[in-house]
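[SOLVED] Predicted holo structure with zinc ion

Edit: marking solved, answer below. Original request kept for reference. I posted the sequence and ligand SMILES and asked for the 3D complex as structure tokens.
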Amino acid sequence: MADVKQARPEPRSPQMDVEAFWAATEREELLIKECRDCGEPHFYPRMVCPHCLSDRVEWKAVSGRGEVYSYSTLMRKGEPGHTIAFVRLEEGVTLMSNIVDADPQRLSIGQPVRAVFRRLKEDGPTLPLFIPA
Ligand SMILES: [Zn+2]
């Protein structure tokens, strides 16, 4: 049987300009893409604006503040819950991440959250995660 941990893909792609994103998370900074033609932000990062198809998209640092759009918690007996969430940033884009350092029973839709940056395995990337704000 395949080892699930080995099967997990690294968050890098040779087709995408994502090195800047991961370099920023190492500095505890969150980047999204913004279009220089229509001004709209987007996430996940793309080479072409999903709103107007312009290729003049560039990285922009954002606050990391947002609110819970939706979430789901996996509970296992004897362990803290593992919460996956869609977070709507105050800049208007939504990203999928985890809510950490929070009691899953006290989470709610619309709850304010902010980004924190954690390396979940020693040789892995620093990930943007969220905690209650
Ligand atoms: Zn655009």
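OP edit: The chain has a mean pLDDT of 90. Thanks to everyone who chimed in.
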